Amino acid sequence: MKPRLVRCHQGFASLPGKANIEVYYTIPEFGYWNKLFTCIECGELFMIDFDNPAFAGKTPEKIAGEANCSKCGNPLRETIRAYPQSFRADDGRIGHFEPDRIIPLDTESIAKEFVEIGV
Ligand SMILES: [Zn+2]
Question: Residue 91 Cα, ligand 1 centroid: separation in angstroms?
């Protein structure tokens, strides 16, 4: 599992008593679809490149296989969740975020490194 640069957008999620929690999300309009995931046990972020033909029809749990989370060591097939639909805040609480349906401008995208799963 290596870090890989991913074009993504920043969103701001909230939890009761806590606002402006930074989250990141990808959109398919970049021509490929890198999806983000999190380890729900520790909050580490990962990505999967679903344009990789080796992953066709496979679930994230299947792609994670025997890999353990690089941060907390838990088996990813059990702790992986779609992100930022589910995210773990600094205080350990689990939040949920749905990206805006309005596709943001490409110029507002940022490049950020995420650990790639499955390669
Ligand atoms: Zn973890």
Answer: 15
Q: How far is the CA of 107 from the centre of ligand 1 (A)?
A: 32
- How many CA atoms are closer than 13 Å to the CA of 39, on its beta-carbon side? 22
ω before 99 within 30° of 0 (cis)?
A: no
67-117 tens-digit pLDDT: 999 999 999 999 999 999 999 999 999 999 998 777 777 788 999 999 999
86 Cα: distance to centroid of ligand 1 (angstroms): 14
Structural domain boundaries in the chain: 3-116
Strands (E), 16-62: 18-25, 34-39, 45-49
pLDDT grade, residue 29 (50/70/90)?
A: low
Q: How far is the CA of 119 from the centre of ligand 1 (A)?
A: 18
Evaluate the omega torsion of the peptide bond into residue 104 and state whether it is cis, within 30 degrees of 0.
Answer: no
E strand residue ranges, the chain: 3-15, 18-25, 34-39, 45-49, 80-82, 87-88, 94-95, 110-116
